[in-house]
Write a structure and sequence with these properties.
- The protein is mainly α.
- The chain is built from four helices and no strands.
- It has one domain.
Length: about 100
């Protein structure tokens, strides 16, 4: 798809969907991180992790003090902040555009 063909409304919908996905990923990562610290395998299974993935996370956890490296958690927070800024900018652009048409 040509970026020029994407309307402001479509762009906003894409940003909102990406933000929702990123917030859900953050929620799962933080719950998994907490479960790993507590050695709560059942919580990890309930989050949808398979045995192989749990073993991998636990191996990392014993080395790094958590199932996800700090940079992964920071990265998703940074991505969420960026998406929120882009969404606000998109909303302002839409308001300005509407104002100029009137």
């Amino acid at each position: 798809m040509n970026p020029d063909d994407v309307s402001v409304k479509d762009n906003r919908a894409i940003l909102e969907a990406e933000l929702k996905r990123a917030l859900e990923a953050q929620r799962v990562m933080e719950k998994a991180h907490t479960a790993l610290i507590a050695d709560d395998v059942q919580a990890l299974i309930e989050l949808g992790f398979g045995q192989e993935h749990i073993a991998e996370l636990k191996a990392r956890s014993s080395v790094k003090g958590g199932g996800y490296p700090a940079y992964s958690l920071r990265s998703i927070r940074t991505n969420i902040a960026w998406l929120r800024r882009r969404l606000r900018k998109s909303q302002r652009t839409s308001l300005v555009s509407r104002h100029m048409r009137t």
